[in-house]
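Risk register update: the risk of archive-format incompatibility is retired. Evidence:
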Amino acid sequence: MDTSILRILLSSDAREAPERVNGLFRGAGIATQTHRITSTEDLAECLRDQRWDLALFEDYNLELDIDAVMDCYRQQQTDTPVVILTEKLTTEGIVEGLKKGAQDVVLRSLDAHLLHVAKRETAHVSLRRKQITLEQNLAEVSDRFELLMAQADDAVAYMIDGMHIDVNEAYAEMFGYEDVDELLGIPVIDLIGTDDQDKFKMFLRHYDAAEVQELAFTGIAADGSEFAAQMRFAPASFDGEECTQAILRKTPTAPTVSLGAVDANIDPVTHLHNRYHFIDALDEYLTTASADGATSLLYVGLNQYAALKSRMGLSGSNIVLHALAELLKEQFGGNDNFVLAHYGEDSFTILMHDLNADAALAAANDLCLLVVKQLIEVEHETVQCSCSIGVVHLNSAAFKSASSIMDVAFFALEEARQQYRADAPEAAVKLYHPVTDGNVAARFNVEEIIEKDQLRMLFQPIINLRGKTSEYYEATLRLFDTEGEEAPIDALMQSINQQLGDTTLDKWLVLEATRKLKEQRDAGKDTRLLINLTQNSLLDEAFCSWLGVALKAAQLEGETLVFQYQETTLTHYLKQAVRFNEELQTLNCQMAVSHFGRSLESFKTLEHLRVEFVAIDGSYTIELQKSPNNSEDLRSLLLRLNESSAHSIVPHVENAATLASLWQMNVHYIQGHYMQSPAEAMDYEFADMA
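Archived output:
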């Protein structure tokens, strides 16, 4: 039941009855405001002019006959639930009350029964009212969608399995059709030139529904004429069913600018090169570059793009992408040694020939600051963005393919995004040094580091805002050099990311964590640990068998351990993660997801896994701490997450104001320096928050 004031209509001939009702509900922790009706006219006026949460009508009221009261109630066609109070409960009386329109009939003396019925019915009416509001909102959105589709300058179509299910007038006109209905149910391939049909079929077979992709082809109009076109495909939903949105644009038949000589290589939204051209540029670099050449790559990712797109819509987010592309062209477009591309929906790439790592790092830092300062106008609303950048100093001896370059660039970007969350929200840049035989400083021997005792495990408490008794900590890792000074752990993690299948570090983490946990539980503490593992534990099919042996050796129950992976890791290795998740369940261990909410497909990953905890990406907390007005994206994410069985964790809580905001968002757990920084001992007084 809602914790706000419950508004009750009461039909009773006892003047003290409202106070009795208020006292009954107040004793159950429910605040009430009760109005005693004196006539059917009073009842009609109340129901007509105000909204009530519950009506209690006594059938033994000598002043107002129950039949007259129920007749008046039905005439008002209200959604207020009615409970009839009676002095004698019989089967016939219950049936008769229900026939009159009451939701239930309750014996006057059974206060506990009345409270349960009241809670049930007020919860039902609250859900009904929310459903009505959602249906109205959906109708408004649908109407707006139809209006935008009809008025859109872009030619837009929605399709399932290559078949049109909806198109707008601009799309129909581009193909020479007068009525949009003429295209419904027609295969897209029927509108494509014969020479390009095989290419289109191949494109559909390899199309990744989770990404935005483009295709250039020759279109066939209704009169048989041909025209060059570019179609942009993106995931969408239509009438609740997953489909593909296609935006069609005619392209010039002759080159008009130096970048656009080949239309198939140009992104239609930003007018930069697309990812296919960029991959070709990397392949060319690997073929022609010298081993000691000075070349760098910038992988630019927009922060919180999923929330931006959800708020601004497709057209609004496209305006933002175009504006950022213009900024990139202003900064780098004049240099013939640079290749600019719109690589992914929320990312850009820049290949910088004849530029060393230091200069590329400086350029990336400058770009971060320029993006923050840029003010973008979208439908009379000003949008301000931020970005994170992964920088890779390229060495042709270190990479064998373009995909291997982009893999490490992605890892660098992910680490930069973590830096954005934790340290410098205005300039988050990470330089990645490839591991090669000639780059000994960047390589790590994990076994040697463990033997020299250079790793330390620290623990940060995770506080339950709902008063549960279990004490949760997250195990975090620190690296120290041979002199005992703390060293950056990023390079170690980069090295491990390149050594797929090596579970040495993962196994050390489990053994060290279980040793510490056993000490806590032997001391009588109900302590449980979240342990962060790498993708290598997912790739090792024997890891869970080893884990079962480790648990027995430590004499620990599986339910005391939660194994946590970054959302991007689970997404990239989803098939392995599903298998690992199932094997964990046989050990009674649990799984958690961290850095959740970056991707547009975050919740799709959750659909395949049984996850106990979901730690929200720290960028949401950073934005909330900048201003309480930045809470809407986090609130929306939590509302949707609360519909699942997973428990939410909000990290990086650094002050009391943020904690106060999170109390109101139904967050399950919080974590951050405001409560306690990571420490070697698990000694937090959890009773402080309970």
